[in-house]
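Quick one: co-fold with protoporphyrin IX containing FE.
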Amino acid sequence: MTLKQVQEGIVNSQVWKSVFRVGIPNTNRKRVLAVLGSLILHLHPVKVRRSGVRMSYTWCMGGTSFFLFLVETVTGLLLMFYYRPTIEYAFTDIMDLREQAPFGIMREMHRWGAHAMVIAVWLHMFRVFMTGSYKPPREFNWNVGVILLVLTLLLSFTGYLLPWDQLAIWAITVGSNMARATPGAGNEGPMSALIKLGDVPLIHAGDDARFGLIGGRSIGAATLLRFYVLHCMVIPLAAGFLMAIHFWRVRKDGGISGPM
Amino acid sequence: MTFLKNFINVLSVASISFIFLSATFAFIVYFCLLDGKVKSKAGVAFIIVGLILATAGLWFLPMFYLSIAYFLSLWGLATLGPRLWDSKTGLWLLIAGAGGFGLSLLDSNFKLIAAKPDNVPIGAMIFLLGIFTWIALRKAYLNDRQIAAGGMTFEKTETNEKLFVWPDLVYTEMLCMIALTIVMIIWSVALRAPLEEAANPTSSPNPAKAPWYFLGLQEMLVYFDPWLAGVVLPTLIIVGLMAIPYIDTNPKGNGYYSFRERKWEIGVFLYGFLVLWSFLIITGTFLRGPNWNFFGPFEFWDPNKLEPLVNVDLSELIWVKALSMPLPKLWIIREAFGLGLILLYLGLAPAAAKGPFRRFYLKMGAPRYYVGAYLFLVMLALPIKMVLRWIFNLKYIVHIQEIFFNI
Ligand code: HEM
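Sure, here it is.
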């Protein structure tokens, strides 16, 4: 049997055909059908502008951001198998993961992937700006992008606390201290002192913006649980949803931008 | 060697490096993107500024270092001109950057900070920013030249050419994914994720730093109070980004790289993104040590380093130093000068609409113009406050402790 016969045998088998409906896309018709007939591939149009495919045009940074999001999802799920978000266990679980888990690079990959995603999203925004792709008709998609950027930063911020080591709590302490200074809503914010009922101040350390963010007067068990839920459920779902809109709009706005 | 390290240490002090970066930014725009010449009004202005810096160096040595770096950069970029965008020049710059970084790693103080696991991605980011800025501006310059010659931009020449997603796009994506997977695996095997001691709310590390992407905001705390640096300014950054497509009504430059058709937009964006945002993050990450003191890249992070706090408020400068009077008790009188200054600053927008920027005002209409102008003024407030701090040790322009309202 030659290699070609093996290949044909596989491609013509019932199993293969049941999965890939059009066979090897070796004619233009089949190329079209291959993209249209697949849930994942049909995120794309059938044909694209040549400059939109060029790495030198898009730098592939939107795709990289998305890919890193997927990497974070997969590695994050694996980390969830080992990690319990309570003050007793959080740190020791990470220690265990480090010492015991075989082939333990999931935490590494999750952390470096997070850093890389932030950088990729910045570079993507930079590219979109430099090609003027926020101009009509893509204004709305630029705005979806800005929200995605904020969500990416929040994802990374909430994740930073979870290892519950010195690095984690102090970084979050510094980061969330700023909320104390929210004008009119933080207990050390400008104008907040003016909001009072008779002599009773309405904005104080027990109810201000920072308290709402970290669920207490200082970083503690409540913060850990809160950040865990935000990090593993709320923000990823929101980001995933917005990404779907983002990709949909890329197509509806006429595909990747090009000169009119 | 020691001299060179000292030179770099001094040069990276926030005030010095910020001026140097801003100047280099201006040189690149003028000489390399707009084909400017030294023998022109702007060229003469650049040289005069350099001479002023050099003169200041007679009293304050770092300024002298700055003027050396300033003239080197001016000379280099003016001689290169648009040749900065040749692939060869780009390659040499990259080699020089990577080589300089590699050599610096031989220094133990440098290595201690630059090779910290969490700092590695930020080091990589510096290179990525440099590379991608170069690529974008190179493509913009080449297109600008085509347009000036009456030709088509590179993107336009292929705009009608359509490719099948399968195989062209799908394969590119797959190759990218494979390459990224390899990078992620190597990176994860080579560099362990940091894990310090278990959380201890009673012992705070020194320095306590926010996650790296917020270090620009933390660095802003040096110049502004938390309500501005941590809340209002970040909010305005987001609002500003979202407003961009609605403020910018220039129809040109949509879907291709260009510079000349969008000088102002790109200039402002790059200044904000590279010179302000990225600069502050890099300073906050690599150059801020214990007590948030400044340390040069080759300096040892000495926790006992003392930096005298000599900052004074505008009210004190005026009432006590200039008028030799005690500070008035009532804040509205005490802060009258500061508040007046702020109002004047905010008045710049309507004033410019009548004066030098009337053209923009008419073209954009009032709402666009004012939103854009105020966002711009807020952005510019940061470098202005930084420079005021460096020159006058100015702490607050307005200081109303009574209601935590300090600017
Ligand atoms: C998690 C974050 C993000 C993901 C996964 C993402 C993904 C993508 C992808 C895959 C594309 C297709 C073209 C390309 O790869 O360049 C794209 C296009 C686009 N993105 Fe994003 N993006 C994100 C964040 C942003 C941000 C922060 C902005 C802007 C502030 C933005 C604005 C846009 C715009 C305007 C387009 C259309 C570009 C064009 O037509 O040339 N996106 N995005």
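If it helps, Chain A touches chain B through 100 residues (CB under 8 Å).
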